[in-house]
Amino acid sequence: TEDDADRLIIVWEGSNDNFNNSVELSDEDTYNPLLGYSIFVASNSDGLPDMFRCRAIFRPLSGDDMTIATSDEAFLVPITDLIGSGSTDDPDNRTFLLTPSDEIVTEMDTAAFVCIPADPTVSASWSVADGINFVIGSNSFFLTILDVFVDTAVNCTIDGNITTASLTVQEVPALLEDMILPEVTAAREGTLLTLQCSPMMATPTPVISWLANGAAVQVATENYTIGAVSQSTEIIYQCLVEATFVPTTNRVGTPPTVSFITTTLVDCVPNIAVTVSGAAATAANVDDTYDVMSGSSFNITCSLTCPTATLSWTQNGTIISTSSSMSITDGPSVEYTINGDGEVTMSVLTVEMADLTNTALYQCNTTVGDVQSNDTIAVIVYVVPDITEAPSDTAAMMGGSVLFSCTASGVPLPNITWSSNSSGSITPDDGDVVANGNTIQSQIRIADVMDDDYQNYTCTATNMFGTDSVTVLLGMETRIVVAPLETTQLLGLTVTFSCAATGIPLPSISWSSDNVVMIDASNTTVLNETTVYSEISVVDIRMVDFVMYTCTAMNSFNSVNESAMLINATIPIIEVPPDDVTVLLGGNVTFTCVAIGVPAPVITWSSDDNVINTTSVVATETRTTSVLSLTNLTLSDFNQSYTCTASNDHGMMISSAFLTEGMVPVIMVAPENVLQLQGRDAIFRCSAFGIPRPIISWVFNDEAVLSGTSSEGMSDGMVDAELNITNISADQFGNYTCNATNMFSDDTETAVLEEGIEVMITSKPEDVSVAPGERAELSCVATGNRAPNITWMRQDGMNFTGSNSTTGDTTSSLLIISGAMSDDFTSYACIAENTVADNIIETIVASDRAVFTLYESVVPSAPINVATVSDESRSVTLSWEDGPLLPLNPLNPNITDYLVYLNDSLNGSSTSPTITLSRLFPFTSYTVTVVAVNRIGNSEMSQSSGFSTPEEIPGAAPQNLTAQSPSIGIIQLSWQPPPVDKHFGIITGYHITYRISTSSGDATAINPVVTLTATLSGLQSDSEYNVTIAAINGAGTSLSIATVSVRTIPEPPALTAIVIPTTRPPPGGIRTTSITVTLPTTTVPYSHVWVVAVRLSSRNSGVLTFDTNSYANRAAFKNYSTAMDDEPYIVAEISADNYPATFTLGDNSSTQVFSDFPELDCNGPLMEGRPYSYFVRFFSSRPPVVRARRDPIGQRQYTVFTTTRFAPPVTTASQATCDQDDDISSTALVIIIASVVVIIILTLMFVIITIVIIKYYRWKIASLKNLQDDSQYCTINPSTVYSYALYDTVKSSNKVYRYEADDLTNGNEALGPGAGYSNPQDLHAPPITGDDVIMNENPAYDETQCTHF
């Protein structure tokens, strides 16, 4: 409609006039100005079929109504049982009252779908494909899809059940835009004409038909071909596209069509042909383009199928000739063929020696009547490519940059490509290709030239008529990389000069001597693509060959040369070799070496293969003098050869000198004085050392001794000499001097040969060892030809006098050292001497001495290498070794004992270096040290050595073993480890066994546990069990065990429930909202009990599948109002003192003793006709309060102590009738039931629904309009206590109230607000009597009671 005030009216018509009804749709129910809906609720009371239909009427704001459409008739047929065996509370037996129908509509129209549930209180939901614009009505039963454009499925869902309808879209036919022909189509005479008509793809598929001048043509395809047309034929053709629509309710009239019309005009069109030099040129493509070679001639012929009075030629749009004037412009020549009527029938345009200026569009233009026609061809004069500016060979060094440029011309413009030997095609950089008209220039750049870049590069210019190319080389200038070297050689020998050169292209090499070209340079080798090697040899060298030799290398870029001289050579000769030298330590030495040769030799010095660079060299062309100077000589400079090596290219010569360290003579062993008797022999010995080796000579009283001497070189620099004097005479007694001499100095030592008396020690003192402070006694006995005198002397030169006694020629001496001190422990000498008196002075003439040592006795060295030989948990065997002997006292007292310390405490002793210690503690670490003992005392402690005793099975049982049975078949154990001093290792677990105390079989063992708690499960209930536990360590399981006896709790008693009505049953029926149950008892002490109820779903109505242990604290439970099927809720928390034998579930009262959350405990009424179960949970003590971080109030955390299992399901009853005493007729009851059935079946729209369902037994319905006398309702009894609830439903701004009364005469007056209701919107009023019934819209409401209402 165009005016918002316009309305769409739906009028219902029926066979019974009483059912006529009309509804004006409100704005909120009008989804589309041309779409409305109406639901008509009809009741059938006579049991006979009724017929209905509806009419859609358009009612404008001004003007008369207009009927738009009338529906088919619908029949209302009564049936005896619409729902079947189910009740009205179970709508699942019939979900849909009306399902949506499949729809077929035209695209961009509107589609409507209706889906009505059997239960008018539920809603429907819709779903369609994404992207589709749809609107759902306010009551959810109607779906409108706007601007339909695609097929889709429409789903309606009610209570989880889905029904589907399809929406099919019929498309309006349309033509493809590029297939619409112009209004006039021109065709050449005698040709075929094809017309095309292509519709868009559509559903349903369009049908094509053709008309020619209004007459149908029997063609039903997209293409229509007309035969050869003749001149001046004019026909009007029409293509008609029709849609084959399926009839729909919203589409009336002829199916849509689309068409186009074109007029065909056949006229005289020129026809042009081209020949080249008299022959027809070949068209390059279908666009009449002809290619002509530059320099050739061509003709263009314009042939006419019909003469014309006017014909003209144009070149690129410029007129070059017309038939009327017969003019000929510069350039092409034109000839015309004219018939007798003066009309042109043919014209020829001729071009001689075609060039680029003849490349053009040539058009032959004609006029026939009012229609102008033309024919056009394109002539292209082509030119074969020609490279006008070619690149040239270029040389570049490695790392350099090269630019090659190539310019070519041609028609069409050539394409320049680059290629190389190895890389193939090369693409120029952007900007390196420049085209200008028919000329193109291309460049390639080679930056940072590498090895691979040296190659040929080809520029190729190509067009469709030919190719031109140029190849250039990127090369490298010649370089000599191996030059001939100046060479010296001997006469008669051969010398070779070598030369290598590199370059691209490969260089050639030639040789010359003193600028005279040498012919024989054939010994040339190409090493690689860029390098050549050549050598020449001069054989049997003569004097004339000693000249300059030159190598010349060249390639196309350059020429280079290198020269070398051949010099006459001689072999080195050392004229002055170095000499051996002996020098004193710290002195200086100089070696000189002179050598001659050609070329002059090079002199090098070395010592022991080490090159010495500290030299002074004087050289001429043929002589070299080298001086090696060494100063401040050290030991490392001596005793090695210093070698002079003279060498040149033709040989070498060496000469060495030895540097010896010189030493002044030193008498190492001086001759000793000799006291000898006449007639006997005497020997003087003298040893000296020096470098060079000294020469020893003897002098007697300043006279040389020439006989009786001998000497022998013992080693380098050492010499021994003896002087033998036999049969000594009196004149031979005197001074004898040993004189050692070498080149540096001399040394002398003098000894005296004296005449003496015999003396000899016959009893030498022995070595003695005493401790500091002890007494030492030393004895010495000597004899001679007279009694000698004995004295004592300590090593430090201190003399002692002993107690001497003489017997004949023998003297005995006793030296006593009391309280030996540290200085006393040293060497001593017993000296026996005989003296000769000479004018008062006594001269010793004979002596003897005996040397001995007084050692200090000390404690032993500390034992070493203390080690464990074997160990057990309580004993260990140890061994060790004595410490090192004292090197200065071989007489030190022996070790008599060893003391062994464990952890710094003496644990035992042994006389041998081994011991076994017992009484150790298992799994304990020890440190052991050993002390050695002799008569002097104890040694230092040895280094400590550690060991650990191995583990031993635990020595005690676990402690504080406790056991309890918290639930059926379960025993929980807890304990503490054995005492720490009884672990005897690391406790790794516990071995647990159990068996029934009355059983004689083996106990059952469980896998070892590592915690201090364990749970035994799967046990028999109400049975005494003996449990043992033993500790385990690495050595095994302890023999000591802890035992405990505990009885498992008995099986919980079976729960029973009795359905007991809580109100007086009305006559004829039973109705229950509570169940009385028997509560179980337990022998286990407890403090309080939970009673828990659960409403069962169909899944749990038979065998219950609940884990009651999952409900250990309040957080696991829902409350009464939120608990769904199979979700337990707490109805009461009862102390042990108040624990009853029976309890009524659903009587709206609970016992709350400990409860911290009274709102969770609500023993509200049960639902009618539903199965329930319950269980009871016992607790040993009141649960503690646990507060979470964000919960300042906290909740109690319950620990399950014991529990019972679920009771078998019990179903509450559901049946209602009126009291026999109530004033209600059976006819009214039949009318009410029939009304409910009609509403379920025929509901077409969710309008204002007022359904009164009458229920009896506890509930009675009262109408506030007529509480006393209305025979359709049960009456209110005077003096009876009632309560009522208020229901509020809004529809079209009107309020409808329903009041329900509760009979409270049977002692239930204290139920309070909310009793018996399951609807969260219910508000229950306080009790009142039937004598004082009032309407209370704000009933009193106690929020502390059953807050879920």
Brief digest:
With 1349 residues, the chain is an all-beta fold. It contains 1 helix and 104 strands.
Task: Provide a descriptive summary of the structure in words.
- The protein has 1349 residues and is mainly β.
- Helix content is 1%, strand content 48%.
- The chain has 1 helix and 104 strands.
- Strands 24, 25, 27, 28, 31, 32, 34, 37 and 38 form a 9-stranded mixed beta sheet that branches. Strands 33, 35, 36, 39, 40, 42, 45 and 46 form an 8-stranded mixed beta sheet that branches. Strands 50, 52, 53, 56, 57, 59, 62 and 63 form an 8-stranded mixed beta sheet that branches.
- A hairpin with a 3-residue loop joins β24 and β25 (289-293).
- The two termini are 50 Å apart.
- The C terminus is likely disordered.
